[in-house]
Amino acid sequence: MASGRPDHPRPGRAAPDPGRLVLANQPNRRLARSPECLLTLSHVRSVVPMTMMSPDPQTALRARLAASSDGVLETLAAEHGLSVREAAACLPPETGLEVSGAHFLEVLSDIASWGEILLLTHTEAGILECKGALPAGTLGHGYYNLRGAGPLGGHLRPEACAALRFVSRPFMGHESHAVWFFAASGAVLFKIFVGRTAQGGLEAEQVARFNALKARLAAAESPHGE
Where is the composition biased (Basic and acidic residues) (predicted)? Predict the structure, then answer.
């Protein structure tokens, strides 16, 4: 229902300045119109320093991980509204390297000769771990088929892997090395960790193999092939 008020200003009154911000929800309308309650947008910008603005999620997480790269990255990713892949990219550069998912088969074929490793999946439902040697696989029907006498086996789609990241960082206070396999969504498909000895230390030969594989793929993806 029309209010009957004209859309144009009344004679003798200036049109409202769109560059001025009127404080709303004032019970006294005359007070709301008073000069003390009028702020221009430039005033707002001048009284709210940039340092009071929250940093973007990546910047905040980089600062957190620069102080300590330990912690459950899935939890940190959720807290900052990031995918796990985006969160992993916030790790300090010295902790890892991301390479194309095109290396999926090459990486799994290499790991198959390492001996006993730890394969881990982490979803919102929980964490599953399996220790054993990764069997050599064969391609068939669109899958990379893992068949062996050990506990690890299954059928993997190579094209589902968009990227891999070599991650070396402390976890729960202990040194760790792992290859993380990412889906296009940024979620983790699974992780393969370097195995440990009965005393809890890392298998030295596997650490050497891990570093050699990382260096080889880094060279393969370098623009100069170095």
Answer: 1-10
